[in-house]
Structure formats: C-alpha cells, structure tokens
Fold:
Amino acid sequence: MSQKGGVMNNLQSLVQKAHQSGDYNQLLETIPYAQTLGVRCERFGNEVVFVLPKRDQNLGNPILPAIHGGVIGGFMEIAAAFHLAIFLEIDDLPRIVDFSLDYLRAGFHQETYAECRLTRQGNRVANVSVSAWQKKKQEPIALARAHFLLPIKER
Amino acid sequence: MPQYEVWTNDSLRLGYVERFIGSLKQCQELGISPVCASTQGLELELPYHQKIVGNLDTGVIHGGAITTLMDTASGASVLCCLPELELCPTLDLRVDYMRPAEPGKSVYARATCYRVTNTIIFTRCEAFQRDPDISVAQCVATFMRIGRQASPDWFWKQIEGADDESKRGRDE
Structure:
C-alpha cells in the first residue's frame, strides 16, 4: 500500500498527522464510508472506544427496528483498522484479509460502541478481536475477529 | 467454487426480494438492489458510489460496504430457498476479502442456501465485479429459523406485495 520512493500519499500524511495531534476523528472524517455510518472515536488515556451514532439510515430490520447487521460489521471493521493504526503507530491504514462475526443480540436503534484488542501481531499480519455493545459492555451485541495485512514499515 | 451458472429469474421471488430489500433503510442508503432471484438463491448489485469509498487515494470501496452487501444477499436468499416466507436472524458471518474491488464498477453478490435444516440455514455468497469467475470476496453465514409467526402480519403483507394490483387480481 505504501508508495515507493518515500513519497507519501494523502492517507499516509493524514495518518501521521493524527498520530501527532492524537485526534483520530479528523482521520475518520476523511474516510467517506466511515462518514456514511457516522463512526467517531473517543480516547480515554490508553483506551479507545469507537461510537456508532443512532441513525435512521443505518437500520435494517424494520420490525424491531434494528441496525443492519452489515452496518454493525462495517463499524467493527473500521474500529479494528483504526485500533491497529493508533496502537501500532503505523503510517497507513492496514488492509483487511478476513473478518468473522458472531451476532449475539439484536442491535437496537441506539448508539452502539466498540472496543478492540490486539490478539497477536506478527511482522506482516495482525489478529484483532472486536466487541460491540449498546447498554451494557458485559452484554455485547456482536463479537468479531479479523486479520489485517500490516503496511511495510519504512526504515 | 462452482462455475457461474445463469439462473432463470423467478418473478414471484424477485418481487419478495425487491420489497424485502426496499424495507431495509441501509440498503436504500447504499443503493443495493436485486438483479435476479430464483429457487436456488439470489443476486444483488451494489453500485459504485463516493459514499462507500474507504480510501480516497485509490477510490477503493470499504470492506464494510461489501459486508453489508453480502449479509443482505445471504439473509435474503432464505426468502428464495424456503417453501414459506420466513425471516431468519444472522447467527454468524465470515468474509474473506480476496482482492480490492475495482473503483467505478458495481459489485455483485450471489448467495445460495446450501443446507437447510429445521433450525439452521447455511448460506454461501460470492462477490464479484464484471467477471463472475474473479471473486472480490466470499462469505459463509448461518441463520436461525424462528418461524414465520415470529414476524408480524403487516410485514409479510408488505413483502408479499398484498397491496399490488397484480396480487389483488390473482386473489379474486
């Protein structure tokens, strides 16, 4: 993904700017899909919590109504990629390889949160677990794990 | 994966799928629409749009939009494969991203139910662009059967198109 010859593309320079300022919401705002869902992040010391706001256009099942399962998945994918970018201080967003998601409870028409854990980091690939919840963190609505390809570190 | 097979479109099922997808706000937001529906499954289209882009430098769409496309296709495929309409909640979903989708082109997802039991439905879904043999992503999912009565009558009327002139004509 990184451009050769030391020339940075826009995304890389935005990622680096976010590392310097600590404001990752600015970076989220540059990703159209994250904006479509409305994803934000909040940092509490060393903890980062991602937020999916209550939005009508994110709904799937009209009966409950419930958030579209794909939106919950997309939200968790964004969270996982950002978690890696933030904590590994890599200068690009990692590329997703695979994503496995268990839906545990219906995601109601409410604000939803997600938190990630880096399960294993290799040289090229990282494994991240994601938990998403609404009212109670102990009662997740979905659990996911994903593999990402890490950008090659420029030395 | 088996070779791409041309399906005979089933207009009754296509109608169910159209109205079902039409009831999902996120699918309206992303412009997801059915291409084909048959007793084997269905095919959906996700048009390319700026709002699903994940990387502004390359214009490649975000994996999350493909997850939504595949989750919708897999979930709606149960409407095509079961003898009676049922809505089945997703238990789990696994997506493998084979390659980035080429910017500017639609992504299609074709989903089939490959095993139906009294309690669980197993689905497979493949996403591709112009060439169905070159997959962008693959997905397997499982759904729980909770029965038709788990969803209210107004919803089934909406999906069955009870208000349609054609249906009214048939009922007479």
Observations:
- The mean pLDDT of chain B is 91.
- Helices of chain B lie at 11-22, 25-30, 63-81, 153-160, 165-171.
- The interface with chain A takes residues 23-30, 50-57, 61-65, 67-72, 75, 87, 89-97, 100, 151-152, 155 of chain B (CB under 8 Å).
- The first helix of chain B runs from residue 11 to 22.
